[in-house]
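For this section, I looked closely at the sequence of one protein beside the tokens encoding its backbone, which the following lines show:
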Amino acid sequence: MLIDTHCHLAFSAFADEMDAIVDRAQENGVTRIIAIGTGLDDSRTNIALTERFPGTVYAAVGIHPCNVTDVTSPDWAAQLSEMATHPSVVAIGETGTDHFHDPPDGYSQSQYHALQDEFLAKHIEIAQASGKNLVIHQRESYDHTVALLSPISGTAIKAVLHCFVGSKEEATSAIAAGHLISFTGISTFKNAATVQETATSVPEGSFMVETDAPFLSPTPYRGKRCEPAFTRHTAEHIAALRNITLEELAAQTTHTAESFFNLPKP
């Protein structure tokens, strides 16, 4: 029994195929899916999917850091706060910072990064007000992002650093600060020695598994569209790295995800 803790079901890559996507996930032991928001529209779509697949699909609502310049509604935070009251919304995000992608036309790098920081701060406020944890993007901005999460240090609100590809030292520091990390199909790639070392060394209860679908398909599907069913391949690989069974890895990561997202027991 696995949980795909991060995928983008609302993306057009899955249009007109949702029933089959969910069915294949179930067939591969992925019994629950967290659909992650990247903007106001797909956050609403995620909520609609939770109503279409109750008990299987849950939602997170947020504005991806690479999308902050697309937001034109001055009341975007109020809209997210309202969405966060839905009973199937289990987290706030995807939010965070991104120092990998270039800024869009009309923005300097410093302006772009400052706007991302502002949006993250507002997401933190929404999380604190709603009592729901944060889903964090931190591509090539690990130290910067973790520093911005200091307002929740030692509080009831936690964060998961999704698609974690950092070193075991970075993972240890994130975990010590009260955060979780989450591994994608990158951990199955032949050239991913650093993240594999991290996945081997971090303690039970400190990490979850995800797909980030439709991106980052694990081996043997690398280069193809990813989907929640592929969580199993990532879990199998990490279980082998840790010298435990898939069933043990699934039980551990499911327990961690249920606690982090406050999911009801099946």
